[in-house]
Amino acid sequence: MKKPDKKSLSTSKLLALGFLIIIVTGAVLLCFPISSETHTYTPFLDCLFTSTSAVCVTGLVVLDTGTHWSAFGQIVIICLVQIGGIGFMSFATFVLLIARRKISMQNRIVLKDSYNISHAGGIVRIAKHVLIFTFATELIGALLCMTTFIPRYGAAKGIGVSIFHSIAAFCNSGFDVLGNFKSLTEYAAHPYILTVTSALVLIGGLGFFVMEDVFTCGKNFKSLTFHTKLVLSTTFVLIIFGAAAIFIFEYNNPDTLGSLSMRDKIVESFFNSITPRTAGFNSVNMPSLTSISTLVIIFLMFIGGSPGSTAGGIKTTTISVLLITVYSWIKGKENIDVFHRRIGYNTLKKSITITILTILLILLDIFILSLTESGTFRQIVFEVFSAFGTVGLTMNFTPLLSTAGKIVIITAMYIGRLGPLTIALAISKQTSNSEGKYQYPEGDILLG
């Protein structure tokens, strides 16, 4: 057998490096005068911020996407969003397939890890299906959006806006090409476009493997895989919880839902419950939200979407495992089980690690921004959770960031997209295999 090359990079390092290369390349392209509407150079840090936000499918921007960037610049941004949404390894596989090149075993392994699946068998076939599903869904979304945007902007611009919006929505990126940082606030009483956007966000946030399982099994919930059952159940609960909270606490708020009809209030409530996980489109003014609604949205941004999707956050399965574990312990159950399946110790350990690392990094960024920025604590907390969850919602605070603040948010978006666990594995040294061959005596610790 061929000995493994000690100098070869681990899959975690390759994923981290691949995303970094794409981000820097995108930043360089955005720096060119052809990328700006005024045909002047854009500061590199602003370009780096925009490129990171696009590749990490976030949507936080320091420069207005609809007015600052030219058509070329907007094309660069949406291409970065597309690459970031499907994953750079999926994009590389797409290029290799077009060029009729062979997919190496190392590329297959990295592709497997980028999808968070346990085996590499049939991974190229899976990648093909992911690409077909992605492009088909985005095409349908663009066609549906054209019925709204073409009458308003004309054929040429309307088609461009529709394609941009559809890709951004499916990839769970809150980039707004409509201009003036308005996002979808002008469509607060337009249930059609909000419903189309919500559907694209939801499909992208569930992930290909869940959608494939749903299409295969149809209406038979019992035939779904354990992973799909857990994702769908958690997603349903979070959407209902978020919509109910926003509906109740914003019902009489004149700056958000107060002036809308009952139908529009319901649509708005569901829309603003779906997009924080983790699309970043907003149809209401975020700073006008009540404190309770803001807290609910922060919670939704923290959880995010599902594994193997275009969304960020700690993921729905992670929070499910933690809550099920707490419930099992309170009930005095020996095993952690749900849907007639037992959750393993390694899964629990990974869930705890992801959650704690994310919380620690969020607290660190809040501390740093509290020192460097002049915004309110509410704005800072909201911004950091939005960046780590790759959401893109903001309290109108992003354009006001200092140089240090931009660097902090860039780092948060990068770690949030790759995942704190991937970053930790990429920068840490693997322990020796001999360490797991023995165990120390168990020590007693007082808790609670």
Lateral arrangement of strands in the main beta sheet: 1-2
Q: Which word captures the global form?
A: globular
| Number of helices, counting only DSSP H or I runs of 4 residues or more | 17
Order of helices and strands: HHHHHHHHHHHHHEEHHHH
The N- and C-terminal alpha carbons lie at a distance of 52 Å
Helix fraction bin: 55-70%
Radius of gyration: 22 Å
Task: Count the domains.
Answer: 1
Describe the structure in your own words.
The chain contains 17 helices and two strands. The protein has helices spanning about 10-30, 45-55, 70-85, 90-100, 105-115, 125-155, 155-170, 190-205, 210-215, 225-250, 260-275, 290-305, 315-330, 345-370, 375-390, 405-420, 420-425, and strands at about 335-340, 340. Residues about 1-10 have low confidence and may be disordered. With about 450 residues, it is mostly helical. It has one domain (about 10-425). Helix content is about 60%, strand content about 0%. The termini are far apart. A two-stranded antiparallel sheet has the order 1-2. Strand 1 (about 335-340) and strand 2 (about 340) form a beta hairpin.
Brief description of this entry?
The chain is mainly alpha-helical and 448 residues long.
